[in-house]
């Protein structure tokens, strides 16, 4: 049946979420909507551009590089770069590469900088241009870009107030674009539209002209064609490939001609609009429905394709719905429409911001839709499929074709306070419990016009229940339970069963067992006996508030404080239960009502929304007001014969259609949105990054703050996140809604941070966002420093070892020298003394003169031994290691030798030199050189004066011995000395052992000058 009348608005509320300036949107007039390749939503407004990630809006204005605050269109090029059409500033491209950012601040004077850090503590914040603008033409009209698109060759087409322009975009970072006019037109300011279909055809709606570009040919449809009779408003393509064009007063289907380059025909869809209702926008969603935004609400069309008798295809509208502010829209004037990847419909309005329609899975009824009381206590379905709702204090209503219809007579006492005490039995009769007693009405319709009678003996009924066996049970106050029987005439007869409590909740399972629950405790009526149900591990609290037996025969018991318990064998004497609670993911541990959908999932009504539990997987999904429920405090829920779940809340009634649920076809992407290192923000791409180049950080910059965002617009339960830092964490963290991770004082090493998003259905991001970084060790922990330190330590050890070895060798040399001296000098002298003593002893006949001579020899040898021993002891005495002791020793020897011979001598030295330390070897060799030189002077020089000089300069000891004797030929020194002597050779050898030099300067008749130069340590 074709639709030839204006669609009528429904009375039910849609699941709509509104966003406006109070939520961070740049402006409440939204003219364009686009979802980019990453998944972000972009909204063009009359005061800039807004980006939405599901949590918050990020706004951009002319300060960020946009050429004009009014945004007319948003699109992407073939490389996924975002472009914006402005109403006077040409087009602008988002700079999503930090290397392209131009930062204006007082230090750079507008120059381009590529510093990858941004100091948050800078008192003069930099202005970062996040967009680069391109003029389309030279006139203001040419830069008022109303719509744009990119073709397959990445050519940018712009529909402006001055005509149609195009420019080839060679690279995303091109500095200039050269536009050319394709179709000029008289300047005229009016909204326009652009669309590229799946066949490569380009469509441009420019006021009354519809321009088609196909294979380089331009075809124009104008006012002479029906489609151009009114200004073109929108162009879309549905999932069957049909191109649909809307002008302000109708929707047309393009009939493709046999020759693609020839003109096509237009078929108007049989859609009648209301008075003053014009079309602004359209979108064809993934289900095949066509949504039309008008000046007076949002129209949903179900368009089907038919094949006509002539073989041509045609479209027919079989159903339409009109949604306005009464159904939850923020404004009736719809300017822009778009569907995101998750099937949500985004609606841009003239003055009410943007609305998100999360499908038609949940529709609600509140007082605004005609409910006399928003507190709905119970929902029931009669045998004919009619839906009734019982309110708290205002009687009952029926839901008829999406509208609320009060039941006549139910608003008057005592039926205005029925609450949940209402039941239609198998015979079709209605049983209603009131404060005035129990009433029965003949069915099948629920009417209060009939005469009523009070059931004898029952007052203040608490609950009415019909078990699966068809037995009717009624509990009342004062510990009474009644079972309904009928006499021979079919009249009701009640049999009283006394109880020890008031049964406030009651349920009969399929085995005939009646479950009874007072305020506390749980009992079963089995075979005429009442048996108490004891608490077990799976039934921790027998304080039942809800009962339900599912299609599998499993019994579910909702409790007051311990969630829900389930047994697969309710007929057992001691049933075993499994418990589900907040520990398993339920929203609340108080379960008031339970039902099941057509695929076996269990719905649990709590004080915090409706939880859906899949027993096969244990997965839980929560429905709240954020998903469109009328309220979060659930009184009752049940499934009707069509599979809809009706939910009675304290603030209205909702219908949930599980078949209309849209499951996302792809996991949520996740991006790193902020990285802060030691208080400094790193420059990231404007829309975040999934992977970053590895960072190398010094040891002092080991504090990191990482923020991330997953893109999902499902609503209701937000995304959860898991993260881990490889190198610190052993695995993924517990799921959390927190969108940041902070790490302080990380040790040096290599790390990899990973984070992933998880939807409410347990779907995990395919690719986690990754940040790899390396923290360098401190200077003293780096390999080269450690290697150098090890090398230095080795050198020190080696030097110490060399020093120790040198000292040992030196000590060995001293010991060897002492041994040699003792053997050669002392030993030989003692041997001579012994020999002379033996001679004296064995020759008693020697003369007195010979004896005196021998004794004199012995005495001289003994004195020589004393001097030798004194020299040996002096040379090894550590207390004599300074130069002053050497000087004293040389002076004492000079006095003893030169003074005895009457030779004048003088010893000169500098005062600061006497504190110089000498080794034993140095002292010994220098002393012996002086001793040999003085001895030679006494023996051979025939001098009258000797000058001895000792000084220290430039870390060298310089000693000079100068006499005024006869001298000798230094070329033949032995000629002037005792034949066969080796004194000069020994002196030269000792100087060489000290690493020094001994220079002898002498000539016959001129005396002798010896110069000794020895390096000091």
Would you give an account of this structure?
With 1017 residues, the chain is mainly beta. Among the domains are: 13-108 and 125-359, YVTN repeat-like/Quinoprotein amine dehydrogenase (Methylamine Dehydrogenase, Chain H, 7 Propeller); 670-778, Immunoglobulins (Immunoglobulin-like); 782-876, Orthogonal Bundle (Helix Hairpins); 879-1017, Histidine kinase-like ATPase, C-terminal domain (Heat Shock Protein 90, 2-Layer Sandwich). The protein is 14% helix and 39% strand. The protein has five helices and 73 strands. Strand 8 (82-86) and strand 9 (91-94) form a beta hairpin. The longest helix is centred in the last third of the chain and has 60 residues, at 783-842.
CATH homologous superfamily caption of one domain = YVTN repeat-like/Quinoprotein amine dehydrogenase
Enumerate how many helices there are, as a single number. 5
CATH topology annotation of one domain: Methylamine Dehydrogenase, Chain H
Rounded mean pLDDT score: 86
- Major sheet, described briefly? 5 strands, antiparallel
C-alpha termini separation: 117 Å
Overall strand count:
73
**Helix amount, in percent?**
10-25%
Q: Which strand order do you get reading across the main beta sheet?
A: 1-33-60-59-58
Low-confidence stretches: 104-125, 975-980
CATH class of one domain: Mainly Beta
| Secondary-structure-derived class | mainly beta
Shape: elongated
Content of β-strand: 35-45%
CATH architecture of one domain: 7 Propeller
Radius of gyration: 55 Å
